[in-house]
Amino acid sequence: MSDLPSPYPPDEERLATLETWLEVQLAYVRDARAALARRAEIQVRTAPPAPPPFRLQRGLDAARTVVRVHLGDCALARKGPGVDDLTARRALVEGVEACGVCRPDNELGMLD
What we know:
alpha+beta
């Protein structure tokens, strides 16, 4: 062994006290970990859903025709229906205008 003295007290009474203190500290650590796990679980359950990849902005006419394609998180089309990339690409090919702010045509790789 080494020539260093033991870091623990030599008598039973102080060793028992040290053991009790360590058990209390371990209980605190386990409680803190459980609280963190509960917070993470609550955060996952209450997180807002991810926005759709793309949105279609509809016009104010009676037919509610699609007038513009946006990225899903664009602030200009928050109420538009969410669509996948294939539907957004099809709308752009059919002549629907791309939003000039969020540029979904860049995201889809459909540059002029």
